[in-house]
Amino acid sequence: MIRHIRRFKPRTREGFSLMEVLIAVAIIAVLATLVAPNLFGYLDRSKVTAAQTQIRMIETSLDTMRLDIGRYPTQEEGLALLQTPTDSVSGMWAGPYLDGGLPEDPWGRPYQYRVGSGSQRGQVFSYGADGEEGGSGNDSDIGL
């Protein structure tokens, strides 16, 4: 009878060493610092584009409402008239004119409405990222 002798094999450890993990994390961190500023720039631009699109949508709703009631909202009525009629327009009002309610701007604040300013419809606008009138860059007003 022949006996098979099992030879001792040293166990090899599977997985990564601490040094390999640290090098991989360092490479990912360097790449993130190079890519992140560009991504945040796109995020800021996308918020401005979203605000411009929502302003056009609100203006279209104001035009539709004007066809029904014969006028645009007064300063006192504001954009709320797109969602809820007042006593003066309840018979002609065929809204709500915006599905899902009046949206907030991309920075979480309500859109502003100003009567006059050379437009019969008035102006729908957002104060931008800073929430204050004026500013430049991301803080500039949108729709004015």
List keywords for this structure.
144 residues; mainly alpha; Glycoprotein, Type 4 Pilin; two-stranded antiparallel ribbon; 1 helix; elongated
Look at the structure and name the CATH superfamily of one domain.
Glycoprotein, Type 4 Pilin
Please state how the strands of the largest beta sheet are arranged side by side: 1-2
Helical percentage: 25-40%
Overall spatial form: elongated
The biggest sheet, with number of strands, parallel, antiparallel or mixed sense and barrel status, is: 2 strands, antiparallel
Q: What is the average of the pLDDT values?
A: 84
Number of strand segments:
2
Secondary-structure element series: HEE
The CATH architecture of one domain comes to 2-Layer Sandwich
**What is the strand content?**
5-15%
Helix and strand content put the structural class at mainly alpha
Radius of gyration computed on alpha carbons:
30 Å
The CATH class of one domain:
Alpha Beta
Termini Cα gap: 98 Å
Unreliable stretches covering 5 or more consecutive residues: none
Per DSSP, the total helix count is: 1
